[in-house]
Amino acid sequence: MKRPFPVLAALAAATALLLPTGAAVAAEPDADDPKSGGRSVGYFTQWGVYDRGFLVKDIVDSGQVNNLTHINYAFGNVNEQGRCFEANQAGVGDAWADYQRRYTAAESVDGVADTYDQPLAGNFNQLKELKAAHPDLKILFSLGGWTWSKYFSNAALPENREAFVSSCIDMFIKGNLPKIGGEPQGGDGVAAGIFDGFDLDWEWPGSPGNDGNVIRPEDKQNYTALVAEFREQLDALGDGYELSAFVPADPEKVEAGFEVPQLMENFDFVNVQGYDLAGAWDPTTNHQAQIHSPADNPNPAKWSSDLAIQTWKNAGAPADKLVLGLPAFGRGWTGVGSANNGLYQTSTGPAPGKYEPGIDDYKLVKDKPGQVFRDEENMAVWKYDGTQFWSYDDPAMIAKKMSYIAEQGLGGAMIWSLDGDDGTLVAEMG
């Protein structure tokens, strides 16, 4: 899961209007709302096949595949030496999910059961079947994420970056996978032709992310050089390989780690964080994915998606290379007072979630009890039942955000993550 950035000193507030009073059940999206003609990106999580039981086949069954241009497979790890690798070790790697797990006919995209000793199985083989059925779909391999960005700084060092990129290309583009744990899967070229490039999810160059991440003062310059190395080695393979990244909403993190004009020359696009703007790590409820910050927002930082987009534009990013991230999950608080329909109220902590406190998939949030409230001007939705407050996006709000994306001339929309959607969110992105 993408994670929050800390609250920093006050930032310039985005232009906003006052929160409308009153409550209303979510309205249907306007059929005339313009939709972006650009990219529609969805993250597929490696671990979603376990507790959530979300398989690649579900991308087809839910109809999501019909509204996606890109799937980002999350995530690959980077080791201390600065190389891509595969492993079966908790918290380190999951080759079993990636390419060893055998699927039944009922679980498979093509309806054919895997055999025990076929060279490629797991999510990778299912993505291969998906791509065979949808040849225009781009599938990128995502590296890092919140949990596995620890050693990105090592990989970006001048003495490591060429070998790092080469190791990632060898494994995930050329498809040379190791045989691990006595399983028959793996071998030279077994995963060739699945992935169309890379998505870099270093969270974050030059500034804190997860506890224990390696951070260096030269990360900013090294990141630029690393991206250029990816671009050079991918281009050497031929035309059509893409390079994207997940990038922060926090203006201070953008300044600390991103040489924007130079980077954007080598990226096909970047996915701008448009969620986790608030969460139960804050004692006060707030909107986690608002486009604009309401004038009465008590958080001095005034986080918003528009603040993030304008930060990237002002730093030199072309609008059509900026893809706005949208949530397929909600952030929740409990013990919330009833004033202002629960908004901007103190809480006693995170609301219960099925997989972890303070967060739940959209397909679960939508069926929780409570009344739905909407701020149409600032583009935010929340649900409040008298004690629990949930901030999330529903299909009507996704449709409205697509109008914002079109008006801003952005390169499309991204959703984290496909396993949280029931199909109706991605349907509004297409």
TrEMBL record:
Enzyme Commission code: 3.2.1.14
Keywords: Carbohydrate metabolism, Chitin degradation, Glycosidase, Hydrolase, Polysaccharide degradation, Signal
SMART domains assigned: Glyco_18 (SM00636)
Enzyme category, top tier: hydrolase
GO molecular function, one term: endochitinase activity
The organism of origin for this protein: Stackebrandtia nassauensis (strain DSM 44728 / CIP 108903 / NRRL B-16338 / NBRC 102104 / LLR-40K-21)
Family per similarity comment: Belongs to the glycosyl hydrolase 18 family.
PANTHER family, alphabetized: CHITINASE, CHITINASE 12-RELATED
InterPro entries the UniProt entry points to: Chitinase_II/V-like_cat (IPR011583), Chitinase_insertion_sf (IPR029070), GH (IPR017853), Glyco_hydro18_cat (IPR001223), Glyco_hydro_18_chit_AS (IPR001579), Glycosyl_Hydrlase_18 (IPR050314)
Superkingdom assignment: Bacteria
Name of the featured protein: chitinase
Domain GH18: 38-430
Lipid metabolism recorded as keyword: no
